[in-house]
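>> received
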Amino acid sequence: MRQALTLAERNTLLEDEMKNIDQIALTVEVQCNDTVKTNIEKVLRLQDRMNESVVTVQTLEREVTKLKVGKTELISELEAVKFDKKNLQMLLEMKTDDKNDFWIA
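>> returned
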């Protein structure tokens, strides 16, 4: 009988210990769920920022491409203007020489 009482007491202690362990496990689970939720929210915010950054980079890449095309066009125009300037200078020199020849003769 004594052994039965000892076993019953031991059983009660073990049941209490199991309840405590269950409560601790539930508390840990809640904390883990909160941590997971927080981390998911952080990841989602970071994904949003990354997507915004990708859009910004794409926009800037398009702008750079346009600027490069514009630069190429301006360089071509500059070369044409330099060529025209050179031709006009030669023409002016020829006219000046002709004028000097006219006054000398």
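>> Residues 2-104 form the longest helix (103 residues).
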